[in-house]
Amino acid sequence: MKVTPPYFGAAYYPEAWPVEQIDDDIALMKQAGMNVMRIGEFAWSSMEPAEGAFDFAWLHHVVDKLAAAGIGTILCTPTCTPPAWLAEKYPEILIIDDAGRQIGHGGRRHACPNSPVYRDHCARIVTKTAGEFGQDANLVGWQIDNEVHPHGQPPGRGCFCPVCKQKFRDGLRAKFGTIGKLNAAWGTNLWSQAYQSFDQLHGPVRGAWHHQSLYAAYTLFQGDSYVEFCHQQADILHRLTRQPVGTDMMPTTLVSYERMNRTLDVVQHNHYHDMPNLWQSAMWFDYSRPVKPVPFWNTETSTCWNGSHTANRYRESGFCRANSWIPVALGGEAVLYWLWRSHWSGQELMHGSVVSSAGRPLHMFAEVQEIAAGFKAAADFITRTRPAQPKLAMHLSNWAQTVFESQGIVEGFDYRTRVVESFYHPIIQAQYRLDVIDAAAPLTPYALLVSPYLVSLEEAALRDRLLAWIEAGGTWIAGPWTDVRDLHAAKYRHAPFGSIEDWAGIYCKQQIPGIPRDFAIRWADGTMSRSQLWCDGFELRQSGVESLADYTEGELAGLSAVAARKVGKGRIIVLGTQPDAAALQGIIAHLAKATGVVPVGDASENLLVVPRKGPAGEGQIVVEHEHKPATLTLPRAATDLLTGKSVPAGRVEIEPYGVKVLKY
Amino acid sequence: MKVTPPYFGAAYYPEAWPVEQIDDDIALMKQAGMNVMRIGEFAWSSMEPAEGAFDFAWLHHVVDKLAAAGIGTILCTPTCTPPAWLAEKYPEILIIDDAGRQIGHGGRRHACPNSPVYRDHCARIVTKTAGEFGQDANLVGWQIDNEVHPHGQPPGRGCFCPVCKQKFRDGLRAKFGTIGKLNAAWGTNLWSQAYQSFDQLHGPVRGAWHHQSLYAAYTLFQGDSYVEFCHQQADILHRLTRQPVGTDMMPTTLVSYERMNRTLDVVQHNHYHDMPNLWQSAMWFDYSRPVKPVPFWNTETSTCWNGSHTANRYRESGFCRANSWIPVALGGEAVLYWLWRSHWSGQELMHGSVVSSAGRPLHMFAEVQEIAAGFKAAADFITRTRPAQPKLAMHLSNWAQTVFESQGIVEGFDYRTRVVESFYHPIIQAQYRLDVIDAAAPLTPYALLVSPYLVSLEEAALRDRLLAWIEAGGTWIAGPWTDVRDLHAAKYRHAPFGSIEDWAGIYCKQQIPGIPRDFAIRWADGTMSRSQLWCDGFELRQSGVESLADYTEGELAGLSAVAARKVGKGRIIVLGTQPDAAALQGIIAHLAKATGVVPVGDASENLLVVPRKGPAGEGQIVVEHEHKPATLTLPRAATDLLTGKSVPAGRVEIEPYGVKVLKY
Amino acid sequence: MKVTPPYFGAAYYPEAWPVEQIDDDIALMKQAGMNVMRIGEFAWSSMEPAEGAFDFAWLHHVVDKLAAAGIGTILCTPTCTPPAWLAEKYPEILIIDDAGRQIGHGGRRHACPNSPVYRDHCARIVTKTAGEFGQDANLVGWQIDNEVHPHGQPPGRGCFCPVCKQKFRDGLRAKFGTIGKLNAAWGTNLWSQAYQSFDQLHGPVRGAWHHQSLYAAYTLFQGDSYVEFCHQQADILHRLTRQPVGTDMMPTTLVSYERMNRTLDVVQHNHYHDMPNLWQSAMWFDYSRPVKPVPFWNTETSTCWNGSHTANRYRESGFCRANSWIPVALGGEAVLYWLWRSHWSGQELMHGSVVSSAGRPLHMFAEVQEIAAGFKAAADFITRTRPAQPKLAMHLSNWAQTVFESQGIVEGFDYRTRVVESFYHPIIQAQYRLDVIDAAAPLTPYALLVSPYLVSLEEAALRDRLLAWIEAGGTWIAGPWTDVRDLHAAKYRHAPFGSIEDWAGIYCKQQIPGIPRDFAIRWADGTMSRSQLWCDGFELRQSGVESLADYTEGELAGLSAVAARKVGKGRIIVLGTQPDAAALQGIIAHLAKATGVVPVGDASENLLVVPRKGPAGEGQIVVEHEHKPATLTLPRAATDLLTGKSVPAGRVEIEPYGVKVLKY
């Protein structure tokens, strides 16, 4: 059997069902048009019912049965849910929260990623599983664990067990060498926080008002513990199998996508966006795509509603179609729903699925069939074209998220929400295509780079790389709140910015919070807007710097809100305040000549338009994502591969949640 | 002395006051027209000031003084508040919450119902008290403990002490025999939750995401622990006294009323409904009445405002009258206020009462006197007539409450709120009288049965009993969300329902959450309404099944929302969605011919109308409960026993919170 | 060097910055016009880097450098932030919260004020510091610790360590002698709460429903622990230095201002009021002024925004001016901002300051310079005149706050909010000047005294002192909710009040909560208003008592809402309900003839008008505090010392946040 992309399927939990039911399930999977199932995710206790006693027969049976029906398997390591015998015999593997409570068996993600005992047991089950299935031709890939993330919510997030405590201290000792250097870097003289030894350090807990550097360091440590945890499994899998290995992650930046995926083979992304925010899912796919040269996988998404505790956020007809095509349009090659068949017991009983726990197709089953048919009809175009490489990129930073979490700008500021709503949204509404990149990503592919709230340029030696890129011709839109902290979450002392003033030839004269009051701004073309979020007011100090917008009232009157300057062959634009959508779109349009960044098409702002090109030809995939009618001006006549009908150049109407695969 | 019902009085705490004050109190009680006091509720430390040293002299003095004034006593066992010496010497009796914290002395309900040490001390104080007062002719009854309920809120409700842990495990071991059977019944293969031994089980705690079966099992265990706890006291009292024994419970179904009262003599019910929801109190009396053949007691209610921490929910003039007559109208024989005299120290200082802590009658004292006079004037009618046995019943289930608590239907769903608002309210507004019954109650008295959200038919062998009752002629309105879980809180795997599809000859084609969107429904008579809460869409599959209402839009268009079928001599009506009030009333009216269930009178929907009949004659008691004017069409001329005036047949006006005892 | 008041400066943390930066800072301080810096507040670990190893050289350097520039120092004891080595070596000093969790190093205020080990270390560092600087002529004063207050929030506030537990028990043993007396005073027979020994007592914790007397006693104990803690330091400082000693406190009454300041030399007050509630700051200065005969210090306030975690509550231009002049107008002699230079690391990074962490003046720097110039220009008038002694006083009680915290009147009642909004605000809007006094304060300076919600007259023997003062001619406006509890938070049993009925010749016939419904009131002059908060309805029982206002509806109709009676040469007015602003102003105006209390001027209600008189002449300081235009009728021609211009008598316009120092 050889299953080829696009992969279309769901998460399947055969361990929870009578073995004989598989035939019914497979018949329904075939009806649905699926060609891949993701299994094993939480099945440790079925694979190793007692310590050292392994049972893979049932799993071979499932994989073989699926294969016989032409359905490939994505096999998961089951390490997210250690069995009861493991927690009982080795309670030291259990996470201890910041209140000192051990998180017991009976849920998931309750083992400490740093526990050596847990790691040994994980290594063994992964080794055994890889030994069993590593050469199985029916596997299309591996998933490590599931949605790794630190336990709990800040303040007091992560594990606080003795192993973590020691490892945190050792990590800081290795990083700083002497406690004096930590004190100096963190600035611990305030509040007599200075440490005399690394052994005095502990993680930040609720009920105390801790130091920002401590918060940031602990969050980083906990996130990186999961990177290390997954990489240990990846090493085993890489030794024992040739199928691609990844780990499915949720839309969070607290565990670094970049460091996690560096040594993995395929980016696996889970999301549960619903009707009001479906458009946001595009940002995460634009973030997943540049990480690897190979297509990413959308390993989990909802068919119709969520249901961890209650059935919630029901999505209307058509949603499933749009939701399934967005990742494919944006460069993915796999779409898997969570879940195939609703659970009949345990947690998440109320969750939407493809078929019910009684094996009945849900209301959107025909839509699933239509999606499958579409993937099949357009398979060649999907797999042998790729989205055009954008010349525009936007930064999304794990470190910025970490710092802002304990130290927001103004009340209510949420880093990820602002990035996606205030930057990503206006950009895609104006039909620009972009890569969303980590601070560590190379800049060479891009002509225009936007760095909103990129709190530090010290990540991944970005400061030097960035300047070199600008001098070589790149255009950088910086801020607001960019280059204002170092890698200890501390401020610079010589200026509000690390380098921006120098580079842009400006002097930040005033800094005023953007709420409760805002300030009027006049743009170079005379249009007016209002400040948002934060207000840096600049003086122009060096030759060549110009103001794109000035404040016109209050203490800021006369200062520049947006300054621009040529630097080498490139240029830098510094945002002193959050521009509104029109102003941000205006700035990018204003730079079109210098950057070559232009809209990919003339279309409604609720339409995702993705030009594609490759050996299979050229064209575009368009997806309506706001449940409203849309229009598109098609530049050339094309064939819609989903209907087989030809579409003349010119105005095209797209129905709500409509999808077209338009090949010229 | 022989005090006869109706009993009218209050909770009295003489242990908190100077002994000589009792004469003043009794004089005021006589002015108020009261004939019973409830005492001893929390007085353990006054009864047993040191371990093994008992003092009942003061209590005899109180009981005797009251008796001398013609006032009977309801004597309470004081076990809700163990003395300081008990908690100090035997700290193992204290509840341990799910965070591992021991709940110390200084409040109430802080001892574990399963602690053998606590149980022994309880048995001793109850035995001693019963020995002292068991043959005292001045007692009219006993109350065991006070408002038993598990500690805390979910998740993590109940006690987690070592005794509870062991008892929970032992209970499951006794129930399942082998751990394999528990694993199979609970479906623990998901998330590797499978247990290798009963000793791995622990109660569900905050901070972990536990299995629904575990939540349900622990809640059931904790609730039944209080049943066992109270029954132990009841056994002692039954040995040593002949007065009726009960325990006063609050409007909660988490401790089973049915199992608790099975071996008790009188249902005792506390409630604190206020102006906006006074009508809801009727449901709890309609629930209390069918449990026992003898009249229930309303052991606690508020005169004018609540005040656990602040004076709140003030009730205006007239409320006390309506609130006091509702239980009597519905078949109770006792109304006791909480409390007689406001506390002068300690907790609940701000609570409304009959007289203030300074011994001054509160503003509604004249109303209390009027109520007393009314009870006296109508005593013969009250005690020698009973509410007519309704042919209509509605289920209210402890198990459904337990399951829904950890696994709601949609966000915001609250089982008890929906039952009382969406079912009970429309029913009583249309002037139907009904019994509200536990799943264990016999069905033979009824012609029509409504089972809203009755999550399992496996309670009390209901499935078989129900089918037999239907086949014998009963009409059953099922759902929504009825027969969808078993007694492990798990789903059926063969179908969404256990039996309903078979019985009704339907096939549930679609299931869609009822929020955020709803769907139009057309009823058989052409009227339109909207779906609520949840939408099951049925196909009619068997002969004889008809659709009473069809969905007319969306994915559900054309499917039946309400299906009906004759079954044997009876019939079943399945609600696929929550009907609105008018639709529910319409269904019941539509069934009048088949069931004989008709309104008890022609009256405003804000009027409670209770027909009564018995040796003392025939008539009706009516109570206005929404603080608005009401009208009633009196079928026959009557005498209002409260005024002595005759009332001609025809239209009668009732003032806000007005009460009439109309004897034909 | 001799720095003279008014003191103008900021909090300065040189320990957090490179030593060489001080010259830049001092240059900016001089530009700002400042003459004092407050330093050392949290610098313990810099003063004593290891146990017993002291380093004051850096601090001498700072003090000397400042002095050389003409800037005096307020030196703080650093005890709020014990060093890491102290917490590590002696973990028994750490606070244990009510959940049993030890609060570790890494924040502030984490040591128990009762820990003898902590106290010893505090005594040593204070002794050492005083030894170093006690005779330093460059110091203008001392601050003990910082913003002392019990840990956490109720219920469960304070420390629960073994030392606290024992001290709490010992304190009650010393107070009551026998446990029987405690039981009798607290009324512990309810709920079997009676104690057999003092060793059974523990502090009130979350998760239990505790006794009001226990809550109140523990809150009092914890607050007084901080008084004792500070006094221990004051004793050392008084031995070793002659500069004035104080402790900077926040607007809370849970640590008694009165008992704390009794043995200190200068009242130090911190506040962070912002634009919507700037007027409230006046109450705290009117509260600070009468405590000592010497001018108080405003030790902390914000220049432009707060920022513990995010930049919040930005204040617009002019705020800093008004905010800085209010304390000076009301009798203070020091205004210090928090903080001089924004932190570059650690906590509170986002807080507004005078200069940024990069050393750049913030936008309101010119305003600061203007304030400095104004203080200088008006220095003689500021320091050699004082606000006229008001004949009006209002009570603000620590005990009332303590009692109401666990036992409110109605839902949402907050003692301090109601005092400032319902009493203080109408009074100052009508241009009355007043002292806000503790229950312990002498009454002799006053002709009119208002005691809102003064829950007990037993504080500081007030009952006798008050009656004597009334009989000698004082006029007392009592209530609502005054004289209703004793010093155990218990009620009186003979009447709702301790003495008020006797004194006023009234009988409280009804008491009804003021929400949800209110009642109409007719005043003696025929005007109507509505009851608020609570309704006592009085009968007039003795000769000489008259009703100033009667209820006209509901159960209260015909009863008096406000009763008045001559008592000796004085009179008592009892408020049975909360009057609205106009009614309260009307009562005070009505009493003008009897009390001589009249408005200090004819001015807009948004203008603070403070008449001043002294060796330096006579005049008034006026400050607009609502950011709106104001007018003033100037009785005599004057010179505005801030502009040097003469201002003729008659109508004067004041701009938003405008300030004038008008010397006749």
Residues in helices of chain A, as a percent range: 25-40%
Number of strands of chain A: 29
Q: Which geometry of chain A do the CA atoms define?
A: globular
Major beta-sheet overview of chain A: 9 strands, parallel
What's the overall average pLDDT of chain A, rounded?
A: 97
Spatial extent as radius of gyration of chain A: 26 Å
Unreliably modeled segments of chain A = none
Largest interface: A-B, 55 and 55 residues
Which helices and strands, and how do they pair?
Three copies of one chain form a homotrimer.
Chain A lengths: L6 E5 L10 H11 L3 E4 L4 H4 L9 H12 L3 E5 L7 H6 L26 H18 L5 E5 L18 H15 L2 H8 L25 H29 L4 E2 L1 E2 L7 H5 L6 E3 L7 H11 L7 E5 L18 H11 L2 E6 L27 H13 L1 H6 L1 E2 L4 E4 L2 H9 L8 H15 L5 E3 L10 E4 L10 H10 L3 E4 L21 H5 L1 E8 L6 E4 L4 E3 L3 E7 L4 E7 L8 E8 L2 E6 L5 H10 L1 H4 L6 E2 L3 E8 L2 E8 L5 E5 L3 E3 L5 E2 L2 E5 L4 E5 L1
Parallel strand pairs in A: 1-2, 1-9, 2-3, 3-4, 4-5, 6-7, 7-8, 8-9, 11-12, 11-13, 13-14, 14-21
Antiparallel strand pairs in A: 10-23, 15-18, 16-17, 16-19, 19-20, 20-21, 22-25, 23-24, 24-29, 25-28, 26-27, 26-29
Helix pairs in contact in A: 5-8, 8-14, 11-12, 15-18
Task: Provide tags for this entry.
homotrimer, 664 residues, alpha/beta, nine-stranded parallel beta sheet, 19 helices, globular
Describe this structure in words.
Three copies of one chain form a homotrimer. With 664 residues, chain A is of the alpha/beta class. Chain A is 30% helix and 20% strand. Chain A has 19 helices and 29 strands. In chain A, strands 5-4-3-2-1-9-8-7-6 form a nine-stranded parallel sheet. In chain A, strand 13 (448-451), helix 16 and strand 14 form a beta-alpha-beta unit. The longest helix of chain A is centred in the middle third of the chain and has 29 residues, at 212-240. Chain A starts with 6 loop residues before the first strand and ends with a strand. The model of chain A has no long low-confidence stretch (mean pLDDT 97). Chains A and B meet through helix 2 and helix 4 of A and helix 8 and strand 15 of B.
